[in-house]
Amino acid sequence: MPQQTRQAARGGAEATPPDAGVPLALGMPRPARRPDRRAVHWWLTQNLLVVVPVLAALVAAALTPDAPSWLWTVLAVLCPVGVGYALLTPWYRYRVHRWEAGDDAVCATSGWLTREWRVVPFTRIQTLDSRRGPLMQLFGLSAVTVTTASAAGPVTIVGLDKDLADELVRDLTERVRALREDGT
Predict the structure, then answer these.
(1) What value, to the nearest 5°, has the Cα angle with vertex 31 and ends 84 and 183?
(2) Looking at residue 29, what is its pLDDT?
């Protein structure tokens, strides 16, 4: 029984995956692999590093003796919006981002307001890159970028465990090399 159906039968997760309306291509299953759970904390930290200084600057400006009265209104609006953004978007990203490396292609879903589903056949892969910024290193995470000649740009799978990312790059490199050696 598929995992989604088992979970629905137990009263767990939703019965329909979030990308159920996405058409299948190249025999690829819908991407089912999520980022590492630590990615939620990574995204949360990124958000807080932006939101907290902005709100702190607004509070400091509002507390000055000659601050305009409308600044408190701006702060009253931006504070819940900023906190909501910082706390909720990491969970939404975790729910939406998916990836899969099938037999013939790599696919990934992402997006905020507009969902993007990208499929990269192994025959189109030009380069594979692994990236670890300082904050990603702190959480033990990595991102894998699959580059093609497509005008749509590269496909980036974010929030992977660093060892899984290294293994994925190694595996995809071997598969692409084998295809090129076959002359296909």
Answers:
(1) 135
(2) 60
Distance CA 51, CA 42 (A): 14
Predicted structure pTM score: 0.79
CA 170, CA 162: separation in Å to the nearest integer?
12
Q: What percent of the chain has pLDDT over 90?
A: 64
Which residue(s) pair with 161 in the sheet?
A: 141
| DSSP-based three-state secondary structure for 167 | helix
Judged on CB neighbours under 10 Å (0-12, 13-18, 19+), 140 is: middle
Q: How many CA atoms lie within 13 A of 89 on its CB side?
A: 18
Question: Average pLDDT, whole number, for the chain?
Answer: 84
The dihedral built from the CA positions of residue 81, 94, 24 and 11, taken in this order, carries a sign that is negative
From edge to edge, which strands make up the β-sheet containing 98-101? 98-101, 105-110, 116-121
Contacting residues for 48 by C-beta, under 8 A, at least 6 apart: 86
Question: In the structure, how many helices (H) and strands (E) does the chain have?
Answer: 5, 6
8 A C-beta contact, residue 105 and residue 121: yes
Q: What local confidence, expressed as pLDDT, does residue 182 receive?
A: 66
Q: What is the pLDDT of residues 132-173, one digit of tens each?
A: 999 999 999 999 999 988 888 899 999 999 999 999 999 999
Residue 49 to residue 155: CA distance in whole angstroms: 26
